[in-house]
Amino acid sequence: QAFFCLLLCIPWGSSCPPSCQCTERAGAKAVLCSSQHLVEIPKDIPKDAVFLKLDANSITRIPSNAFRHLSHLEELDLSRNAIEKIDRAAFKGVAAGLRTLDLSSNRIRNIPKEALLALNAKLRLANNPWHCECALQEVLWEARLDPDSVQDITCHTAPREEYVGKPLLQVLDAGVNFCSVRQRTTDVAMFITMFGWFTMVIVYVICYVRHNREDTCKHVEYLKSLPSTQGHAE
């Protein structure tokens, strides 16, 4: 009876995922799931977790609302995984309280700026095969990056070959603006579209005028072919 009473008295929120260890660190719950061959984020992480280590696993994606129930979370380590995709709402629910977020040493090429710009956490994004583009530039400008890892954010691919292999910060310091390149591309596309519509309107007007002129000529010829009033009178 005492055993069953003990089971009933244990709150569900204090349970620990089978592949993790849950400990107390300075009075706060730490959930340690490092090097456990995980391919996805565990569903049963305790709600009162403050520190969560998921590093050195095989996680490939961070889905929307993955940590939404962890309202006390302050430190999140997702480094040394195989993360390729991060959904826009991946950190929804924890953005305000999160202090550090480690995404270094993954396979991230690009990331929706909405996923990171709402965060107040210090970010580590180093050692990923980044595609240098406007969204990444905006993250670099707006997010709180760990200064010790900024130089390791390098361009694995880029719009121009000369930027490949260089630290993104160095490329931006040289005066490159990936967002202005995108804006120019958009402006050119809009100009081409407007020119196409203008051409169609001009062609339509020309065809309309020509068609009316032909109808007028036919009508005049028809009138000329009719017997004149004077001819009838004679």
TrEMBL record:
Listed transmembrane segments: 188-209
Keyword line: Leucine-rich repeat, Membrane, Repeat, Signal, Transmembrane, Transmembrane helix
Coiled-coil zones: none
Span of the signal peptide: 1-22
InterPro entries per the UniProt record, alphabetical: Leu-rich_rpt, Leu-rich_rpt_typical-subtyp, LRR_dom_sf, LRR_TM_domain-containing, LRRNT
Assigned GO CC terms: plasma membrane
Subcellular location, principal: membrane
Membrane topology summary: Single-pass membrane protein
Domain (LRRNT): residue spans on this chain: 15-51
Localization in the cell: Membrane
Family stated for the protein in its record: Belongs to the LRRC3 family.
Protein name stated in the entry: Leucine-rich repeat-containing protein 3
Source species of the chain: Anhinga anhinga
Gene name of the record: Lrrc3
